[in-house]
Amino acid sequence: MLGVQPTTIRTWEERYALIVPERSPGGQRLFSRQQVEHLRFVKDRLDAGMQPADAHRLLADMMEGAPPSASGSGRPQLLILLAERDPYAAELEEYFLQTEGYSVELTFDAAETLSRAEGLSPGVVIVDLLISGGEGMELCRSIKRRTDAPLLAVSAVEARDEAMAAGAEAFLQKPLDPLQLISTVRDLLGSSAFLRTPAVDTT
Amino acid sequence: MERIPSGHPNLDRVLDGGLPAHNITMILGLPGTGKTILAQQYAFANATADRPSVYLSTVSEPFDKILRYGQSLSFFDASAIGRSVFYEDLGADLHVGGLDLVLKRVEGSIKDRRPGVLVIDSFKALRAYADTDGQFRHFLHDLAGRVTASPMTSFWIGEYDQSEIGHAPEFAVADAVISLTSPRVAQRETRALQVLKLRGSSFLPGEHAYRLTPEGIRVFPRLADPADPSAYPISSDRDSSGIAALDEMLGEGYWAGASTLLAGPSGSGKTLMGLHFLFNGARMGQPGLLATLQENPTQLARIVGGFGWSLDDDRVHLMYRPPVDLYLDEWVSDLLETSQRVGARRILIDSLGDLQWASPDETRFREYAYSLLNRCSRTGVSVMMTYEIPQLFGVTQLSDVGGSHLSDNVVLLQFVREGSRIRRALAVMKTRASEHQPEIREFLISSDGIVLGDEIALDQRVGEGVPHASRPSRR
User: Fold this and answer.
1) 43-102 in A: which are within 8 Å (CB) of B?
2) Which conformational region is residue B465 in: left (phi greater than 0), alpha (psi within -120 to 50 degrees), or beta?
3) Angle at A41 between CA A35 and CA A42, to 5 degrees
4) By 3-state DSSP, what share of chain A in percent is helix, strand and coil, each rounded to 5?
5) Is this prediction's pTM over 0.80?
6) Contact A175 B111 (CB under 8 A)
7) Mutation test of the interface with chain B: which of A85, A86, A88, choosing the one with the most B Cβ atoms within 10 A?
8) Helices (H) and strands (E) in chain B — how many of each?
9) Residue B466 neighbours by CB distance under 10 Å
10) Which of B129, B174, B125, B180 is nearest to B154 (CA)?
11) Who among B111, B149, B152 is closest to A86 (CB)?
């Protein structure tokens, strides 16, 4: 439909629960005219280079009556709390995140990060595991206990398993590839917006 | 560990598979050693549209010259410029804004281009723009912090000499240091690449010869294999020498995979004896490789043809390299590559002395010869080497003869005086793991090649140990 593979449409349906067609008695999906328009909206965004998660977020904005925007600014989950150890890395990460339209709060201290994570309700928290002399792992555990923000752990040292065990949803080894950083944050935001909250009822 | 290729497999071999990615590498060398070529080689070999290479020139080499001469290199892809390789001139900014502006330009490049490779050429020139050592160190710290925060590999190029490594602070910051030098040997200028530092990876130590070619830097890793105590299969076959009577003296020929040194004065028949071995092997279906540094192909064709053989034999492969401007490791790299390509089972090296003379010192030659023979032995390839000794008559010692202690077998060819006549004689001096007949036999060179004659007795009483042929006596 509209040049989109049926398997892709089913994946979107399961993942984002925004365009959910009714079923015929035989199990066939029956798309309403409005749902077809929604699919067309998503496909147009993809053709323009947008990621599926972002396109669905925009669609959700539109369906809720909010004015769509490239960054979706104003939604609390688009604030990124960046807890870094290295000021040079922090500058680059902040730059690339802001270029993508995200708001960035920057901290260089574990205790301050925890306090801001509770107060700001960020969409994603990025934690350098070596922050404050190596308190990043404990910081991840504390953030997971006190907030429901998705966590991206980063470190110059390979520590994926330990980071996951400490509650991180994703891990990236430094130096960070900007594109990988952005796509990981997008994925986490997508999860945050659509998987961890009840699906929007569009029927 | 992620590594980045140089575009030249031999250099990657020196670096244990390639430079570790995301580090800072300094390439140092005096003008004309090929630093800029090497840096550009890395730039083009690793450039992609997503992760381009950025080449920042400072104030040593005019920007246009880098490009103009770069075009003559085969890897220089003009269509990549502006798409995956970006050349930028920092010279004007450096004059106007000093090191602070350099930092801003680097930061701008990192943000705008997201490079995978960043080259600063010349880095040494930047030092002149710092008022104090402290200021330069501060700049270094800032720059290293910025480039380390991004997943890219940096190359800092400079006209340093090795004496500066101990005190110039940039060498402490760098993760890898590659030196390019042009040491003089006799009246020849050679080229040597050496890895002086490589964090997080092993590398092949020592000086590796290289040449500057239209394809860029071609490195010939120094042949110096570490001791390998592991067992390997050895053949129980015997290789005929190609001379029936000599096979008898050796006890049915040489062990397959053995090394044999043919020592003797000029004109004594060493090359011919080697050709017997090679062409006999070819007749038995064993491909042979004739690696000669002596006669050129034309001369050799005539010699070979005179004994009924032909260089057109497709089982005998010729590798002719004149001893002029000879790089030992280039030669052995070619030899091993050719041997592998043609599936050689027998190799004749004519002569070992040419290799010894091209060697900077005796120690280097011994480790080189050991490594070469060891590699051949482990792959079951038989090697025969000729070696010219200076004494025309009366050889009294072989200990100085290169490779005699390393070879499994040693055959000595001699001239013997009998009145006004000169005869030729041979003796098998050594056969490792085998017995041989300890006698001296006269031999003749006929149109059929070497023909062994009778045993002869040497008379050592005729002045200064000069051998003298007594009346021949049949065994």
Assistant:
1) 86-89, 91-92, 95-96
2) left
3) 95
4) 50, 15, 35
5) no
6) no
7) A88
8) 12, 24
9) 17
10) B174
11) B149
Asked whether the beta carbons of residue A175 and residue B149 sit closer than 8 angstroms, the reply is yes
Measured between alpha carbons, how far apart are the two ends of chain A, in Å? Answer: 20
- Report the candidate in B228, B238, B236 with the shortest Cα–Cα distance to residue B260: B238
**Residue among A88, A178, A179 minimizing CB distance to B146:** A88
Taking the C-alpha atoms of residue B72 and residue B111, their distance in angstroms, rounded to an integer, is 31
Q: Which among A86, A91, A175 is the nearest to B151, CB-wise? A: A175
* Amino acid present at B309: W
Q: Which amino acid appears at position B411 of this protein? A: V
Instruction: Give the amino acid at B427.
Output: A
Q: Where are the beta strands (DSSP E) in B182-287?
A: 184-185, 188-189, 192-198, 208-213, 216-220, 238-239, 254-255, 259-264
Q: Are A50 and A183 in contact (CB under 8 A)?
A: no
Check: CB of residue B274 under 8 Å from CB of residue B316. Answer: no
- Read off the tokens for B133: 């050592």
**B114–chain A Cβ distance below 8 A for any pair:** yes
Distances in Å between the alpha carbon of B416 and those of B266, B311, B413, B459?
A: 13, 32, 10, 10
Q: What is the largest CA-CA distance in chain A?
A: 62
Looking at the DSSP bridge assignments, the partners of residue B3 are B20
Distance from CA of B90 to the nearest CA of A (A): 22
Residue among A110, A77, A50, A105 nearest A188 (CA): A77
CA-CA distance, B102 to B93, in Å (whole number)? 7
The position carrying tokens 């015929």 is: A24
- CB-CB neighbors (< 8 A) of A97 in chain B: none
Mean pLDDT by 10 residues, chain B (475 residues): 93 95 96 94 95 91 79 92 91 90 93 95 94 95 96 96 90 96 80 94 93 94 83 84 87 88 92 95 95 93 94 95 91 95 96 89 89 92 93 71 78 86 88 82 90 79 48 44
Q: How far is CA B131 from CA B126, B134, B136, B245, B470, in A?
A: 11, 8, 8, 82, 86
Which spans in A17-165 are helix H? 33-47, 52-64, 87-99, 110-120, 136-146, 160-165
> Is the bond preceding residue B122 a cis peptide, omega within 30 degrees?
yes
What ipTM is given for this predicted complex? 0.70
Are the beta carbons of B241 and B385 closer than 8 angstroms? no
